[in-house]
Write a structure and sequence with these properties.
This is Signal recognition particle receptor FtsY. Residues 27-49 have a biased composition (Low complexity). Its EC number is 3.6.5.4. Residues 1-120, 136-175 are annotated as: Disordered. This protein has 477 residues and is an alpha/beta fold. Among the domains are: 173-257, Up-down Bundle (Four Helix Bundle (Hemerythrin (Met), subunit A)); 263-461, Rossmann fold. Helices cover 38% and strands 9% of the residues. The strands form two sheets. An eight-stranded mixed beta sheet has the order 5-4-6-3-7-8-9-10, with helices on both faces. A two-stranded antiparallel sheet has the order 1-2. Helix 15 (433-440) links the parallel strand 8 (419-423) and strand 9.
Length: 477
């Protein structure tokens, strides 16, 4: 751009002839030369500034940035205001005429040269520590709080693990009624006689329907209803309550012959009790409850873990043994049940044990091979003691219904059942199957389960059982 102003203009006198020059004002120069871009501020090194402040070294002037073509300035030698000297135009021209196109090309401006990048200085973290350090005063350690006592888990009561267990049923008839009032038998007769029905054939039909619904069985129901019908035609009943009293007497008459408790023979050492039944009726749990009962009665006891098929059956019986302080003879999973019973009988004879209860695996009565295994156990026990087992106790689920008759028939043919235990009567059991079993087989019913606790395994009481199934007003009479 300097060459542009120094170029000779047409009609101008050469500067070498007259030496006249023209001075331009600041406004004209500012219009001709735009304001240059401001130079980028210089980055201040923090570490160097702190070092200079610490040693008191004079601050050096910042280095002048390299000039570029668009930021060049012209300063006079005396340090005054910058002057720009260009050739003066002709004195005769008032205003500059438009410049004609010159055949000579203007000199190209020099290409700007980019400044070389400064070498990167290592970054030193600033160290600001001019004031003297003040050490903190030692603080007395705060004593740690005493640890909270760890809560101790309460032992789980006997029965179902992890579930709230009901207390034992009250003694006597009150306990039977409390646990059996939810059965189908009790609910059917309670609703039937609560509306004070008329003494007629319709009442007999309703009684017949209730008995069949409660699993009393067709044969037992027909015999009961026909006996009541004959007495009603003979005008032996004054009202429906008298008929209900006669029904109570007939039901007790069916159950009284089979309500025979189990008696331990003291001469047989040990007195062997073999428990049998289908899957899931509660054989192992019944053995645990019997163990507690015999232990409380003062008998020396031993258990044989003969259920070697079901998973954890041996561990379950061992848990009952530890709870009651009873020795358990076991061989592990999938062992021969007959060999377990044989070893237990040998150990019982050597120790003079009074009672030996042998557990067996649950099996369907329709499986002939499994039923034959029970016969093998009986024969093996007979080799050591011809009278063993002294009691074959079959456990029957009270909710089974009429299928219990088929089960008892097959088990009785295989091992000769001598006693029954009816369990789970406190749930949804209909209760009438007990009458069907007693009427058809006449096998003694030793115990009845009306709850989960060991005390809820009751010696079967025919009168208490019937009174719990019938309305309370009649049962208390």
């Amino acid at each position: 751009m300097v060459s542009f102003f120094r170029r000779k203009k047409p009609g101008d006198a050469p500067s070498g002839q007259d030496g006249n020059t023209r001075r331009y004002s600041v406004e004209e120069l500012a219009a001709a030369f735009p304001e240059p871009r401001p130079a980028a501020p210089k980055q201040v090194d923090a570490a160097a500034a702190i070092e200079q402040a610490r040693h008191g070294a004079p601050e050096q002037a910042p280095a002048t940035p390299p000039r570029t073509p668009d930021t060049q300035t012209f300063a006079p030698a005396d340090g005054g205001q910058p002057e720009f000297v260009v050739p003066a135009p002709s004195p005769l021209r008032a205003e500059p005429a438009p410049l004609p196109v010159s055949p000579v090309a203007a000199e190209p401006a020099p290409a700007p040269v980019a400044p070389a990048p400064a070498p990167a200085e290592p970054v030193v973290p600033p160290t600001v520590a001019l004031a003297p350090e003040v050490l903190p005063q030692p603080v007395a350690p705060t004593p740690a709080p005493a640890p909270a006592p760890t809560p101790t888990a309460e032992p789980i009561a006997s029965g179902s693990l992890g579930t709230a267990e009901r207390p034992a049923a009250p003694a006597g008839k009150a306990g039977w009624r409390e646990r059996l009032r939810g059965s189908v038998f009790a609910r059917s007769f309670g609703g039937l006689f609560s509306r004070n029905p008329k003494l007629d054939e319709d009442l007999l039909d309703e009684i017949e329907t209730a008995l069949i619904t409660a699993d009393v069985g067709v044969g037992a129901t027909t015999a009961l209803v026909e006996a009541l019908r004959k007495r009603m035609k003979a005008r032996e009943f004054a009202d429906a309550n008298a008929l209900l009293a006669a029904l109570r007497a007939e039901l007790i008459a069916i159950l009284r012959p089979v309500a025979v408790p189990l008696v331990i023979d003291p001469q047989a050492k040990p007195f062997v009790v073999l428990t049998v039944g289908v899957n899931g009726v509660g054989k192992t749990t019944t053995i645990g409850k019997l163990a507690k009962r015999f232990k409380d009665e003062g008998y020396s006891l031993m258990l044989a873990a003969g259920d070697t098929f079901r998973a954890a059956a041996v561990a379950q019986l061992q848990a009952w043994g530890e709870r009651n302080g009873v020795t358990v003879v076991a061989q592990g999973q999938n062992a021969d049940a007959a060999s377990v019973a044989f070893d237990a009988l040998q150990a019982g004879k050597a120790r003079g044990t009074q009672v030996l209860i042998a557990d067996t695996a649950g099996r369907l009565h329709t499986q002939t091979g499994l039923m034959n295994e029970l016969g093998k156990i009986r024969r093996v026990l007979g080799k050591l003691d011809p009278a063993a087992p002294h009691e074959v106790l079959m456990v029957i689920d009270g909710t089974t219904g009429q299928n219990a008759l088929s089960q008892l028939r097959q088990f009785h043919a295989a091992v000769g059942v001598t006693g029954l235990v009816v369990t789970k009567l406190d749930g949804t059991a209909k209760g009438g199957v007990v009458f069907a079993l007693a009427r058809e087989f006449g096998i003694p019913i030793r115990y009845a389960g009306i709850g989960e606790r060991p005390e809820d395994l009751r010696v079967f009481d025919a009168e208490a059982f019937v009174d719990a199934l019938l309305p309370e007003a009649l049962g208390s009479a």
